[in-house]
């Protein structure tokens, strides 16, 4: 049986900006768009093409994302880019609509491109892992790709993140083949997508109340646990001072880092299910080909 690592309220970042977003730093904020977080990079009032959107929520959240963006950056302000941690349905739900409406380039890791240009579906979710309503429904979650091929670009090979000076991307596969996390060395801030999360994403109740806990990646969509363990170890070794995950509240401080170190150290016991479709048989290939489904 897997475990969780409780965190006190002291580890939460609870600074709400005037625009209604949760602010992590003067140039970094996020909103919870139903079940997943959407991140905004750029100074308030940055204006048209002066900011970046990281991930694109679930279906039905376009107006919420646009309203938050306009409140933070100005009326009609479009991003310079959309950067994706990965392409699961809860991170690209309104990607096609926003990319078209804003006429904006989309950046993602090469191994994630088949799920963003219409070529391939993700492996199906595994409802047998994690318990809870969210996990139990996972076989019903969309796995078909979106298609933003006309706007899709690979992340630069030098590790930089377009339109985000001072940030680098880190390949953190396991939850998906081309999953990436974003890292800013200057203030040790990390945007981790679903490499690990701060709520029990398998449970509808936990997702609603967002109790402060450190967890591995959402179990029902994680398809390579060995790779996921290595990715968490890579991120823990950076000792971030603050984190924003794809699910759950943003966290900061020594207690958060201590919990992340424990997650990395005891990953097999804390995060990995005892059984499951992808536990013994990960969907894995060096070139990503094993992930592809017609």
UniProtKB/TrEMBL annotation:
Residues 35-247 form the Metallo-beta-lactamase domain. Pfam families: Lactamase_B. SUPFAM superfamilies: Metallo-hydrolase/oxidoreductase. InterPro entries: Metallo-B-lactamas (IPR001279), NDM-1-like (IPR050855), RibonucZ/Hydroxyglut_hydro (IPR036866). It comes from the Bacteria. This is MBL fold metallo-hydrolase. It comes from Terrihabitans rhizophilus.
